[in-house]
From TrEMBL, chain A:
Native organism: Kushneria avicenniae
Keywords: Cell membrane, Membrane, Transmembrane, Transmembrane helix, Transport
This protein's record includes keyword Transferase: no
GO cellular component: plasma membrane
Matching Gene3D superfamilies: MetI-like
Name of the protein in question: Spermidine/putrescine transport system permease protein
From TrEMBL, chain B:
Superkingdom of origin organism: Bacteria
This protein's name: Spermidine/putrescine transport system permease protein
Coarse class of the protein's main subcellular location: membrane
CDD domains: TM_PBP2
Record keyword Cell membrane present: yes
Organism: Kushneria avicenniae
Amino acid sequence: MSQVDVVWRRRRRRETRHLLISVLPGALWIFIFLVLPSAYLMSVAFMTNGGFGQPQMPLTLDAFRNLAGFGFLGWSPGNLYTLWRSIFQSLISLGLVVLVAYPIAWYISMCRPRLRAIMLLAVVVPSWTNQVIRAFGWMNLLSPGTPLSTLAEKMGLIAPNMGLFPSDFAVTLGLVYNFLPFMVLPLYAAFEKLDHAQIEAARDLYASPLRTFFVAVLPQTLPGLLAGSVLVAIPAFGMYVIPELLGGGRSQMLGNLVASQFGEAANWPLGAAGALLMLLATLLGLVILRRLGRRLGGGTEMVI
Amino acid sequence: MQNRSFRKGLAVFWWLTLMFLYAPLLVVMVFSFNSINTSARWGGFSLRWYERLMHNDVVINAISHTLLLAVISSIIAVILGAMIGYGLYRHRARKLGLLIVLIYLPIVMPDIVFGIADMAFFVQINRLTGLLSPGLATMVIAHVTFQIPFVALIVYSRFVGLDATLFDAAKDLYASPGQRMIHFILPTLKPALLSAFFLSFTLSVDDFVISFFTAGPESATLPIYIWGAIRRGISPEINAIATLMIASVALVAILSLLFNRRRA
């Protein structure tokens, strides 16, 4: 072994030690207090429900059968309704978020550069407030007797004295409100890079405004749109606070189902099975994001 | 598309959306000064809900828990996160894929799964060893876990923005590792550490779900108190507390903006 070799090896060992010393404490922290608990939670999903909601040993798939509605008293559709509502609510609110965010992002990209930063900030700032308080603000705006509820009553949209809250509608509204910035930011990033030559070319070829949009604008903003969709739909799917506060008892979503199993309903395995489902949805979203990032050449990293 | 009426339409839509974004916050703020006990009608200006807050020990306790939790967790997270950020930068030539997945995990994990996983874990640990009974300690642990990644990313990106030859320069001038740390790394890192601290602080104050599941009976923070007050029935006091929280968030936002601008 030559002298150089020894020096090089010693140096490499020192570097590895440095890496471990600097990275290990934080990495261990995340591992012990997030990875291990999640692994435990996932294992609970395959256990049996004991007396006081405590998971017990024989490993079964009971929790998943429970989640699909099979319980003590035979099959009931309650849990499946909850699942369906989660999917439906996250898709509906995603559609509405797109409808609002698209013009907003476009408009911001048209303004003077100095103004743009302020406008983006104006969109993001409300989301810095605690989400409980934001939901509470909507409760104030939508409860029976408020101007908005009275207006809806007069137009015959809701029954008298019912108010717009609590309802499925209030949940959708809350979701749209909560996730709007998540769509505006990636869309804006796409609009900022918009190649205006394509639009002019389309117009020079006498394309109608609508055709110009579909041929020259939409394809260019598609990466931002798709990235935003993942960032909205996946977290909306597992939302807890908004359905709990704005929905009342009948607008529960998966997050509420999971939470109640660890509280008053006391069925940890069922709750863990729901949590597992949420994790799978998140994983799916991440895979989609990565695929997008690779195929469309970056631009998605800045999102988070 | 540069067509004038199209642009005007977009401008109108922009202002409507802005109204939509700020209406719930404004309602809370305005009605915190309402003299009567409802958010449906305006009964005149009054400060009675704020006065009531001053005498509400539960609220004062919740405020001090919130601040204590935010400060302690942010300090721990800044230390651990900065170390990760530095390690990531110094060894960026190596394959650190698994480590990066680990660091992104707390960011992408749905907060309800995060909170419940920690709760279930702490309950079992507590049953086995008697340690980690739910309270401020468990909340600090959970908060640090979701703050570390943000700190690490801020510090890492600050290092990437540096001229790499500066490190060599320090070495060429025979600075020892300790001297390099004190005279070069820490001073250049100071703005990044400060903004990481501010971000961790706001993340902690902003969090509800994870706090909610890891809290004990004696360690309710302000968001948890507000949640409970809402569940028990709407009280105009909530408007007053919420207004204070909105105002402090706005203050922190403005401060960090000014701070950032001066740096740029």
